Automatic annotation (TrEMBL):
<dbReference type="Pfam" id="PF21686">
    <property type="entry name" value="LigD_Prim-Pol"/>
</dbReference>
<dbReference type="GO" id="GO:0003910">
    <property type="term" value="F:DNA ligase (ATP) activity"/>
</dbReference>
<dbReference type="InterPro" id="IPR014145">
    <property type="entry name" value="LigD_pol_dom"/>
</dbReference>
<protein>
    <submittedName>
        <fullName>Non-homologous end-joining DNA ligase</fullName>
        <ecNumber>6.5.1.1</ecNumber>
    </submittedName>
</protein>
<dbReference type="InterPro" id="IPR033649">
    <property type="entry name" value="MtLigD_Pol-like"/>
</dbReference>
<keyword id="KW-0436">Ligase</keyword>
<feature type="domain" description="DNA ligase D polymerase">
    <location>
        <begin position="28"/>
        <end position="279"/>
    </location>
</feature>
<dbReference type="InterPro" id="IPR052171">
    <property type="entry name" value="NHEJ_LigD"/>
</dbReference>
Amino acid sequence: MTPITEVEGRRLALSNLDKVLYPADGFTKGEVLHYYATTAEALLPHLRDRPLSFLRYPDGPDGQVFFAKNVPPGTPEWVTTAEVPRSEGPARMVLVQNLASLMWAANLVTEFHTPQWVIGAPGSADRLVFDLDPGAPATVVQCCEVAVWLRERLAADGIESYAKTSGAKGLHLLAGVEPVPSERAVEYAKALAVEAEKAMPRLVVHRMTRSLRPGKVFVDWSQNAARKTTATPYTLRARAEPSVSAPVTWEEVEACRSVRQLTFLATDMGVRLREYGDLLGPLVDGGRAGVVP
């Protein structure tokens, strides 16, 4: 029998709570839901007002994995949805605005992916993002080196940046900016990626061509496009273990060369949130937005 629970006055059917989703360490669906419930205070501000794309893996990362943007069948009427413009025609997408809708979405077993704009201003970027993706034998260690360079370069333009793990192999850099057309955000991010490649030609590549990427860090600037999305801070990822796209301090990034790893699991996040709070809080408090030159 499917358990029924109440969240913020909404009745939710939470299914298959004992199902193991991460076989490497026996992490169950119930533990996934507990993770999202206990990180909601930090996670929700990064989801709010941003149309949600779902990467679903209902049978765990070794099962079927599929990406969806449209409102899933069976979505409760109390879950907020909005019409989103697309080149191929408008679509209706989910907005996770509160704990009840977060828990409903988490019950679908999903990674959360969001764009760099909010629903009130589609195609107007209020965040910059760089996805640093290492090509073997490069690792997150090289990503950290590139991240520090990008931090300083962004700072030279008056833009303060923040880092989080991708939850996979790499690292994400995020910065809050005064809203600009997404096309302008793409242009600026690409220019910095090209500049990084010129400054560190043995370490960085700005083109997606896979044959260029072994041993280098691909600085993916394209996720600033209005149609693209990036893994939301604190989302779980569909990996062998319940890894998290976890905000990190710059001290941790700088120490990565000696530590040689930068990975956090769901079980790490309670302690980190108690110690640091939301390291990406400045992105949602509106107080430190830079200006794209």
